[in-house]
Structures are given as C-alpha cells and as structure tokens.
C-alpha cells in the first residue's frame, strides 16, 4: 500500500463552492501532501465535509481548481472516503468487503485473502459472518474503514469517523487510523473533537464559515494559535 505519484499532492487553488446564493467554501487554497494525517477542524457548518467531498472529487468547485499530483480530472481509483454515517449492505461483514473488492476491480481469486486481511486489520476477523447491520456502531465504523481500504487507496478521507462512538470504540478506530497512516496512506479527516485532532494530526486545517482561518503543524497550531478564531475555538468557546 503505497501512494502512487499521481494522487499527491492534492492542491486546492482558490476553490470556491457555492449552492445557490450560499458560499460553502470560500477561496480555499490548500496543499495536502504525503505524511502524517491532516485533520480538518472547525465548528458545525464550517465546510469540513464539503472540503472532503471536493478533495475526493465528488463535488466540483464552482470557481477555482483542484489538482491531484498536478493533474485535473484524475479518476478516484486511488482515493477512498468514509462518510459520517456509512451505510452497510444488508449482508455479512465479509460480504460487504467482497462487494468493495469487486467494485474496485480486484480479481476474484484474491477476494478471500484480501477479505480476511482487511477484517483482521480492523479487528473484525471473528465477526466475518455477522450481518453488517447487526454490528455495533464502532464495529460498523471499522467495517466501513476496511471497505474503504479494499481499493488500496493512496489517500483516505474520513468524515468524523468517531462521531457518536464511546471512548473504547473511538480508541479502536483511532488505532486503525494510525495503522493506516503508518502504511503510508495519506489520511485526511474531519473532526469536531479537538482531543482527537491532537491525538492524530500531523497538521491541522481550521475552517470557519467556509474559509481557512489557520493551518499548520498540529503542535504549533494547538500551542500558539495565530488567529482570534482559532484561539476562541481551541479554548472551547463557541465560535459563531
Ligand atoms: N448542497 C447544499 N446546499 C446548500 N447548503 C449546503 C449544501 N451542502 C452544505 N451546505 C451548507 O454548507 C455549510 C457547510 O457544510 P458542511 O461542509 O457540511 O460543514 P461541516 O462538515 O463543517 O459541518 C453548512 O452551512 C451547510 O448547511
Ligand atoms: Mg460535516
């Protein structure tokens, strides 16, 4: 699992996304390069999910440009995204993964081996035959991660991967994210959990009202935020 040259860096060049009269992302300039996870933080509605969709290539900018490894229109074969509430197919955990392997065009002869590898990676080997929709919230989230990894992505986008999970389930998901990152897969994730951002981020992008208010290495951004918005948000005060 290694990032091919073609996916990274992902460059946002003055990207604006509008929906009718509403500006959802406002002239975003950003480079997502290989390395430790990039974590998007910011209050609800600040544009985190939209930024992930644009970076995945699911949503085109209204203005500006996005490139993957310097190219536009790179098909998302080596990118994967896990949405905030992943939908499980009404079949077993293993069958959910096989479906993803098939969708990724992985040859059938590899399905059994890859399925058990992926289930082991996310700690669900013992639940391979369990109906996916009967798994706990944390287990479903781990299965969603395994499914996303089926296509052997160079970049993995995660939208609030631990929202509404308890601490034990959160830790299991965070451990997988670390393991994924150590396999040289670039993780770009949104969270509104600042503790999680501190635990996982190599660098941080803070959004507010569709604008990047601050970005930088996690250690310096958390210790010495440069903007009033970041100071307010990091202090746990309401940023409106
Ligand atoms: N398709 C859309 N049409 C209109 N407004 C939208 C649409 N998608 C998102 N928004 C608005 O854009 C803002 C940013 O949304 P989102 O990217 O989901 O933020 P976040 O993930 O940080 O909570 C929100 O105010 C949301 O209501
Ligand atoms: Mg969101």
Outline the structure in words.
- The structure is a single chain.
- It is built from 8 helices and 9 strands.
- The chain has a domain of 158 residues: 3-Layer(aba) Sandwich (Rossmann fold).
- The mean pLDDT is 95.
- Helix 2 packs across helix 3 and helix 4 runs parallel beside helix 5.
- The chain starts with 9 loop residues before the first strand and ends in a 6-residue tail after the last helix.
- By secondary structure, the chain is α/β, with parallel strands linked by helices.
- It is 33% helix and 24% strand.
- The structure holds adenosine-5'-diphosphate and magnesium ion.
- The site of adenosine-5'-diphosphate has 12 residues, from strand 2 and helix 1.
Quick overview of this protein structure:
With 240 residues, the protein is α/β, with parallel strands linked by helices. Helices cover 33% and strands 24% of the residues. Helix 2 (93-103) packs across helix 3 and helix 2 (93-103) packs parallel to helix 4 (137-149).
Strand content: 15-25%
Q: Write out the CATH superfamily name of the domain at 10-86 and 154-234.
A: P-loop containing nucleotide triphosphate hydrolases
Strand and helix order: EEEHEEHHHEHEHEEHH
CATH topology of the domain at 10-86 and 154-234: Rossmann fold
Total number of helices = 8
Number of strands: 9
Helical percent range? 25-40%
As laid out across the biggest beta sheet, the strand order is 5-6-7-3-8-9
What form results from the Cα inertia axes?
Answer: globular
Q: For the record, what CATH class of the domain at 10-86 and 154-234 applies? A: Alpha Beta
Which molecules other than protein and nucleic acid are bound? adenosine-5'-diphosphate, magnesium ion
* CATH architectural type of the domain at 10-86 and 154-234: 3-Layer(aba) Sandwich
Derived structural class = alpha/beta
Which residue ranges are poorly predicted, with pLDDT under 50 across at least 5 consecutive positions? Answer: none
- Gyration radius (Cα, Å) is 18 Å
């Amino acid at each position: 699992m290694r990032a091919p040259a073609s996916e990274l860096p992902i460059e946002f060049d003055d990207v604006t996304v509008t929906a009718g009269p509403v500006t959802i992302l406002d002239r975003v300039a950003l480079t997502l390069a290989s390395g430790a996870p990039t974590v998007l933080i910011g209050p609800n509605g600040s544009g985190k999910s939209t930024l992930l969709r644009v970076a995945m290539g699911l949503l085109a900018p209204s203005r500006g440009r996005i490139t993957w490894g310097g190219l536009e229109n790179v098909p998302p074969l080596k990118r994967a995204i896990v949405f905030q509430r992943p939908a499980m197919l009404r079949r077993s955990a293993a069958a959910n993964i096989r479906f993803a392997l098939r969708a990724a065009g992985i040859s059938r002869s590899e399905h059994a081996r890859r399925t058990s590898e992926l289930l082991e990676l996310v700690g669900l080997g013992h639940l391979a035959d369990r109906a996916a929709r009967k798994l706990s919230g944390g287990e479903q989230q781990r299965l969603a991660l395994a499914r996303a990894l089926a296509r052997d992505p160079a970049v993995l986008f995660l939208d609030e991967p631990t929202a509404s999970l308890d601490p034990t389930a959160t830790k299991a998901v965070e451990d997988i994210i670390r393991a994924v990152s150590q396999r040289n897969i670039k993780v770009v994730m949104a969270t509104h959990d600042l503790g999680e951002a501190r635990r996982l981020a190599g660098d941080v992008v803070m959004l507010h009202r569709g604008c990047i208010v601050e970005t930088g290495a996690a250690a310096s951004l958390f210790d010495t935020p440069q903007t009033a918005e970041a100071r307010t948000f990091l202090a746990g005060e309401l940023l409106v």
